Amino acid sequence: MAQCPICQRQFNKDRLEKHQTICEKSSKKKRKVFDPVKMRVKGTESESYLRKIKSKKPEKEAPKPAKKDWRKQHEEFIRNIRAAKKAQQHLANGGKLEDLPPPPPMDTSDYVQCPHCERRFNEAAADRHIPKCASISSNKSKPGTGRASAAAKKPAGRVTAAPRLRR
Question: Which pLDDT belongs to residue 165?
Answer without folding.
Answer: 67
